[in-house]
Amino acid sequence: MALVRKGLVSVAKRGLSPQITLIPFKSQRLFCNEPSSSNPLLKKLLQVPSSLIKTTLDSDDRFALRNSAFPWDALVAGLPSLSSEKAQLVLEWKLEKMLKENERDYDQYLNLMSLCAKTRNVPLAMHVFTSMEAHGIKPTASVFNSLLHACLCLNDAITAFSLFEIMERSEGYKPDSETYETFIIGFSSLGNAVAMKSWYSAKKAAGYCATLQTYESLISGCIKSGDFDGAEKFYEEIRSIGIMPNEHILENLLEGFCRQRRFRQAKELLKSFLDVGREISVKMAKKIVCLYSEYGKVEEMEELLSTVVESGQVVEVMLQVHSGIIRMYATLNRLDDAEYSVGRMLKQGLAFRCANDVEKVICCYFRKEAYDRLDIFLEHIKGSHKLSKSTYDLLIAGYRRAGLSQRLDSVIKDMELSGVL
């Protein structure tokens, strides 16, 4: 056990450099990043000086570590809002409490190391590890994997490789499937396809099978690095062994096709997705709509709309396509088609969600000098869409430029009544 601790100290000295580039590790093992400003304890921690962080955490019995009332989840979610020093003190406090209570649950230590990764604090993760050993808790492969994850959060490959070597030389915590997966996920997140593929080969050579998670990481990493052929190769591989690709895999493939302007392949991918009864994600809808819009593919966009309506996609997906069509027609100054598309969307019970979409249509009316038709359009959307200040400003500028003082006065009055002015 002491040998492990000495090895880790050596690793830390060699691998942790103040010049290291801090690159966040966006793996599939995500943490909650929602702000928790409503949490009273977090508010206190934000206000007190660093010297009082631990005292504040200890100040109330109801915040005891094992008390179910302790707002740990909310506090963890708020860690990013704290300074790095305060975040470290919070995690140190948790470790001290765990050791004082003689905590033996490995998951508690794994979670703490993961939090160190979230706050990009590898030295503290190392400290958690060595503290476990000092208290007689033998390391396991899972603990090492959590430490590897913390290192890869900072793109600290040197330390990660050194830890892997320690695992290889050990008897009780040799690299397992998750070890290789951690490296694959880490390098995938960084878009380092070469290193990612090398660890994939190493995983297979070690006798471990690829999982859905493995392929998700491989395809994502290939797309990030622009290795589109590699992404397609892994996609074919996953299909050949009978694993059903998940939403993230298909989103990444679609992104690859869109970046390459491969319209036919993008269309076929969506069709294959729908043929097996799967739903298109909002992210996928945005990608394909953006591609079609960029190249003015009106007919393809209309066909996409028919497809999503017939297949009963969720409202957000249908709205993405409707809005894309409306924006396209407005940009092309095809006012008749834009009006028809707006009416079609409203009849389906959908409404504008974005002020920018409304403003593109308004600009089309102004370019066509179709002021009476603009009045009708505004009347139609009044019940389902509240005009923003930017939209009112656009109307004021347009009417002023056209010299339509009566309409200008009407818009200003509407602004006053709606409380925008």
UniProtKB/TrEMBL annotation:
It comes from the Eukaryota. InterPro entries: PPR5-like, PPR_rpt, TPR-like_helical_dom_sf. PPR repeats lie at residues 105-139, 211-245. The keyword Repeat applies. One of its GO terms (molecular function) is mRNA binding. The keyword Signal does not apply. Keywords: Repeat. Pfam families: PPR (PF01535), PPR_3 (PF13812). Signal peptide: none annotated. Belongs to the PPR family. P subfamily. PANTHER family: EXPRESSED PROTEIN. This is Pentatricopeptide repeat-containing protein At3g48810-like. The lineage of its organism: Eukaryota, Viridiplantae, Streptophyta, Embryophyta, Tracheophyta.
